[in-house]
Amino acid sequence: DTSTHDNYLSNYLLQLCLYLGRRDFVDHVERIDPVDGVLKIDPSALNGRKVWVQLACAFRYGREDLDVIGVSFRKDIWIKRIQMYPFEGTKPPNTPMQDALLKKVGDQGHPFTFDIPVHLPCSVSLQPAPEDAGKPCGVDYEVKAYIANEEDETDEKVEKKDTCRLIIRKIQYAPNELAAGPKTDLNKQFITADKPIHVEASMEKELYYHGDPIPIKVKVNNETSKVVKKIKISIHQITDVLLYSSDKYHKCVLNEEFGDQINANSTFEKEYRVTPLLASNKEKRGLALDGKLKDEDTNLASSTILLPNMDKQMQGLVVSYKIKVTLMMGGGLLGSLTLRLASLHFIPNVSVKRHYLLLSLMTFPLLLKKTFPLIMPEHNYLTKKILLSNLVIKQQ
């Protein structure tokens, strides 16, 4: 009977429903956007049990199927739980997003808010190889609601139908105060020449948004009899793995050569513009990315910002970038200059025409696949097309 199956599916899905207005929460260096959402609870399905919602920040270094003899490759960096039903404690004021969600969820909606400490790391994942399975290594944040008898459910079996979870991202935003761009120079003296060759490389600023071209100014004063055949610019990502291991990954994310020739006893000055993109590095295993959500694109990982007195070990992964400028001569390399680069995430401004349509919930992919109805005043079904048509995205 199809109607009986649909009623069962409705009860199965709606005993716990997790609603968030977004999945990206911004680290503004000195403060972090609160994680505000609504949990819909059907008390008739609890059978005297309680409901909790938790936010956990965890570091994963190794596949889950490698967890043997009690040795786990996952470490919880930070975790916080809130008892939602029956509620205990003091409820903070609702945010505008929570008010909008509660109007649509109804009396069974229960708002919750988590404040993420500023010392916690941003979401970072290491790009897996095509044949790798399971969750990628890195730092992730997960909101989970569950029905249980006790707060810490590790001592009892919680069935999958009594749990809903959603991965979110804590992403780095550019700080307001920017330092001057890096500058470095090199004098190279040859045994067979009386005078040296002088090279200088500089950038106007130290911070660039993902996808922005990076201008690099190169100046050369060649007082020797040698000829520079071409100039090579490369950008390298350095990822330090600090928990469980002392690994360090060096990945070249851009390597371009320019056929500019610098003759003997001459000067040269030119600005080069290069753009490192994840699209050009899809096959590189171990490349650090901004935490990836399922079926969504991401970027190269933002540089890690370490505040004073911050425990570096708690970051799990520390990401930095460097630029190399190399002059190529007929006999090989002349010398390389290294510039440090900060590459941070740019957050577009997203305004929502109808707040209740911007729902990130654990069952959303299932709703699309099985066309399970989520009743709303204007629409009978929440579809991907409807969701996208009600978003206005403006990039600053």
Automatic annotation (TrEMBL):
Q: Arrestin C-terminal-like domain spans which residues? A: 193-344
List, alphabetically, the InterPro entries matched.
Answer: Arrestin, Arrestin-like_C, Arrestin-like_N, Arrestin_C-like, Arrestin_CS, Arrestin_N, Ig_E-set
GO terms in the biological process aspect are: G protein-coupled receptor internalization; nervous system development; signal transduction; visual perception
* Keywords (A to Z) from UniProt: Sensory transduction, Vision
Pfam families in the cross-refs: Arrestin_C, Arrestin_N
Entries under SMART domains matching the protein: Arrestin_C (SM01017)
Checking SUPFAM superfamilies in the record gives: E set domains
* Keyword check for NADP: no
Picking any one GO molecular function of the record gives:
G protein-coupled receptor binding
The family assignment reads: Belongs to the arrestin family.
Function as written in the Swiss-Prot or TrEMBL entry: May play a role in an as yet undefined retina-specific signal transduction. Could bind to photoactivated-phosphorylated red/green opsins.
Know the name of this protein? Answer: Arrestin-C
Source organism per UniProt? Cyprinus carpio (Common carp)
